[in-house]
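Posting this for the archive.
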Amino acid sequence: MKNAIQQIRKFNQERDWNQFHSPENLAKSIAIEAGELLECFQWNNDYDKEAVCEELADVVNYCIIMADALDVDLEEIVLQKLEKNKKKYPVEKSKGNSKKYTEL
C-alpha cells in the first residue's frame, strides 16, 4: 500500500487538487463513491466485477486522501478499530452470528 499511497499523493500534488480536499469534501466524495459502488448491485447480484473494482478503488482512494488530510496513519487507525471490534464482538458470542454487538 505504501507505493499506492505515494502515487495517489503525487497524482494530487501534480494537479494541485489538495486545495479541494477538506475533510468535509472528502467525506462527501467517499459517500458518493460508495453509492456508485452500491449501484453496481442495485437490481441483482449479477454484477460487473471490473466496474465493482473501479468503484471500490475510488472509495479506497478517497479514504487514503482523507487520512492524509487528517494527518493520520490509515493502518494505525484501522488496527485500533479492529481491536475495539474484537472487544465488541468476542468470538464466543459472535461466531456465525450477524447481530449487532448490542444484541449479542
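The chain has a mean pLDDT of 96. The helical segments are 2-15, 23-39, 49-69, 74-88, 91-94.
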